[in-house]
Amino acid sequence: MNLFLLKQEVASLEWSVDDPRAIHLKKVLRTETGDRVDFGVVDGPRGKGLVKWTGSGTVQISFEWNGPHPNDLVPISLLVGLSRPQTCRKVIEQASALGVSELIFFRAEKSQPSYEKSSLWDEEWQRLLIKGAEQAFSCHLPRCEKVNCLETAIQSSLFSTTRLALDVYEASQSLSEVTIPNNENTLLAVGPERGWSQSEREFLRDQKFTLSHMGQRVLRVETAVVASVGYLSANYWPGRGWAGE
Fold first, then answer.
1. Is 117 exposed, middle or buried (0-12, 13-18, 19+ CB in 10 A)?
2. What pTM value is reported for the model?
3. CB atoms near residue 229 (< 10 Å)
4. Which of 96, 129, 209, 215 has the fewest CB atoms inside 10 Å of its own CB, making it the most exposed?
């Protein structure tokens, strides 16, 4: 991780040396008393934490906070068909690191019903969002939810303008051909591990989605997410909008 992300702003805190975060401070960052480490607050400021290792089995950290960290999320809403829990874990962490504004999982026609019952959807998904933001040195997390179908996912999204769906089989254009107007946001749909059903393809077309591809190879869900969001994000800068517009 590149910073520790806290849920609220505090003046100081204390962790047991057995806490995974304290172990990271000691064994990965190799901090000593007097060192300063990067911290942030969810949707809040970044700052420095002054480390003090005690002789009583704890580490104490006192903070100096800067001003609010500007929102650096990209105006992309990512819709992903429910896949195996291990795949969804990768998607959550990487999508958070890439800075999508929304992440909505939906039960696709080819999703296994058991995927919805995974313990991932209890509290683990929240920790993965934080882990991704920590990697990205950001304080901002995507809005994330799980819904029961593609139609509900589209309706739940706060975004609605440029609509793209990845599909290697019936795509009408390459993702590299997409130009997003500066005043628009992007709704990007990625199917589950077994792909879209034909009825879902027709529904996407009816909902004004353009089927797009990233070449001829069939990719894993997590690979398709990273490649497509990474490509689109490379053309967006906060405050300036989409490149070329």
1. exposed
2. 0.92
3. 24
4. 215
* Residue 48: strand, helix, or coil: strand
Residue ranges of domains in the chain, CATH in brackets: 4-68 (2.40.240.20), 74-242 (3.40.1280.10)
DSSP code for 182: T
Tokens for 196, please give them. Answer: 């879209």
Give the integer Cα–Cα distance in Å for 152 and 8.
32
* Token pair listed for 45: 């400021």
